[in-house]
Amino acid sequence: MASIRGWWRAEGRRLYPKARTLLITADGGGSNGYRLRQWKMELQRLADDARLSIKVCHFPPGTSKWNKVEHRLFSFISSNWRGEPLRDYETIVRLIAKTTTAQGLRVTCRLDRRAYPVGRKVSDKEIATVNLLPHSFHGEWNYIIRPHV
Predict the structure, then answer these.
(1) Cα torsion for 73, 2, 45, 138, to the nearest 10°?
(2) What would you report as the CA-atom Rg of the chain, rounded to the nearest whole angstrom?
(3) Which of 6-15, 17-26, 62-71, 101-110 is predicted with the least confidence, judged by mean pLDDT?
(4) pLDDT tens digit sequence for 85-139
(5) Handedness of CA 76, 29, 109, 12 (dihedral sign)
(6) What sign results for the dihedral spanned by CA atoms 26, 134, 6, 20?
(7) The Cα angle at residue 121 between residues 49 and 124, in degrees rounded to 5
(8) Chain-wide mean pLDDT for the chain?
(9) Are 131 and 146 within 8 A, CB to CB?
(10) Pairwise CA distance, residues 48 & 43, whole Å
């Protein structure tokens, strides 16, 4: 969520000043998995702060290969750092940030040195505060989180 929040603050709200909804496509597992309560709590916090509805569409388990970002971006990143020793985080960030595509995509990359708490449990009471509207088709994977009015 820190990456999405950072993108919204640094670029998104400037590029899309009239936006009322943000669409996020995400893998079904990992730190942004559809089952994770902390992910949904952080989405709610962003929705409230940015006053945006956030529409989330998770790829079903085992289908992250359909993720367009991975196919259109990660291969260019890998090509860009081919043969370069990845000695430290700064080298990796520098190489990712130099990545471009023939279609004009430019990558923005920053190193996040913040420490994040691990093992935090979100209670039933806390998750009940998330203003989540499941979609009629696989609402566990597809939903909207609306800002609290």
Answers:
(1) 40
(2) 17
(3) 62-71
(4) 888 999 888 888 888 877 887 788 888 899 988 888 999 999 999 999 999 998 8
(5) positive
(6) positive
(7) 80
(8) 87
(9) yes
(10) 9
Over residues 4-19, the mean pLDDT reads 94
Question: How many degrees, rounded to 5, is the angle at CA 121 between CA 126 and CA 144?
Answer: 50
Q: Cβ atoms within 10 A of the Cβ of 32, count?
A: 20
Residue 113 CB coordination number (10 Å): 6
The answer for 136, left when phi > 0, alpha when psi is -120 to 50, beta otherwise, is alpha
Contact between 137 and 57 under an 8 Å Cβ cutoff? The reply is: no
pTM: 0.82
Q: Are 131 and 145 in contact (CB under 8 A)?
A: yes
